Amino acid sequence: MDINELASSLDIGWTLLAAALVFFMQAGFAMVETGFTRAKNAGNIIMKNLMDFCLGTIVYWLVGFGIMFGTSSLFFGGFEFFNDGMVGEGYNWTQLIFQTVFCATAATIVSGAMAERTKFISYCLYSLIISAFVYPVSGHWIWGGGWLAEMGFHDFAGSTAVHMVGGVAALVGAFILGPRIGKYSADGKVHAIPGHSLTLGALGVFILWFAWFGFNGGSTTALSGGSAEVASRVFVTTNMATAVAATVVMLITWLRYKKPDVSMTLNGALAGLVAITAGCDTVTTVGAAVIGLVAGFAVVFGIEFIDKVLKIDDPVGAIGVHGVCGALGTIMVGLFAYYDYGSVDVLPRGLFYGGGAGTLLTQVIGVVSVIAWVVLTMLIVFTVIKKTVGLRVSPEEEIAGLDIKEHGLTSSYADFIPVAHTIYEDTEPAPVPAVPVTHIVTETSGDSGEMSKVVIITRRTKFEMLKNALSEVGVTGMTVTDVMGCGLQKGATEYYRGVPVETKLVPKVKVEVVVAKVPVAAIVDAAKRVLYTGAYGDGKIFVYDVKDVIQVRTGKTGYDALQYPEIDK
Are 169 and 110 within 8 A, CB to CB? Predict the structure, then answer.
């Protein structure tokens, strides 16, 4: 093997290693999205992250690669089906797999912003279209020899080509889809819906940080001919911007929220990664630090603006991280570009290094053009899907969770009880029917007034309605417990890998109230009114006599211990 063959093998090996790292980013995105959303949708999110890569691989090979790297025009590559990685004659398996994993990254970004309320079939459809057409067309402009490449637009590893495309598509999708139930009240107040596992979210961020060295560093696609030095520089600038952005977000949230916010700081690390991706090969370490600084501010205030002002519900912050910081990072190449990359692609220096405004203007034109392309195409795509197969699940499906409704999965966490939701169903209650009421009488002392304990066991999806109904009749306190149980229906049968799994116990919520002043009949009637559906599983109401009650704070007993005059006033 001569020196040229050795160098070629080294370059291919490096690119294939980077492709494997970029593929591993799918796991990172899956963990971030799963951790930042509720447990009842975890299986659905994992399924979407799996299938956007699988479906994207197929359609990108079928048509996307030809559109992106064909040479028919400066605006569109061309239709070359079943591409082998090189337009025309020949084979370039390395280029095909490397570009495939990049394409999958753009498609998966959209999943997070539209999580917890999107139909699975709809997700598959728009993910296919992004991978087959939307991403390849703008990718041709930037990386396939298109008109932006001709202008000198510089996006080394994809702040715009990959991340901003995904972020803008997520913005359009989340806007058309609408917020999750309970996210905003009628008066516009924002309600937090915390994710179920910051541990998973943090694991995802660390995976992404690790794999991003392949995303950015591997974009040299070589280690020979001076590319090793560029790859080293890319590693340093990528790491610096990320560390600075995360630190800035921690400090901002510490000052604004009085505590350093964990989830926002995790988003800060991702914001730094996205922002540095366009210019990681050409900026200095100082430039990388400043880009990270700007990204830190941008992601905090960008996410807040999207959530609180635009009222667009983005459960994982994908729009702020990928859309906002992708655009800013690309534009900042026009300010901080310093090093030339290679001898062919000579990048003019940025404005802050004596390069004038030309590079900055080119970067802005590129960003605006890609935004316009993605907004136009995705508006059409999401509108057509909404008018045909539908984009959003029903309110009942959303409240119950997409795991059970879309995939027949009772829980993604075997042997763990799912967390009860706290979402109010804004629906008219059914007419009052006869519901069995079991009276269990215990010994009473007779010297503490008449006190009763009412225990209600019902569906978790009915809890918020029940809580409001009890409050309306004067109940001031309750104890709520997640329980497992079954009644006449003897549990539910679901399937795992096609095999029936008989569930003997199903998740329920148990509400306990002890009253003396409030009539028991009022509580029972209120519960019956809101809990009835007519189907098995509506629940049971148990009424007990209570012997005594002791209020620890005051020492009061009996009837007096259940009165709260300061609240009544």
Answer: yes
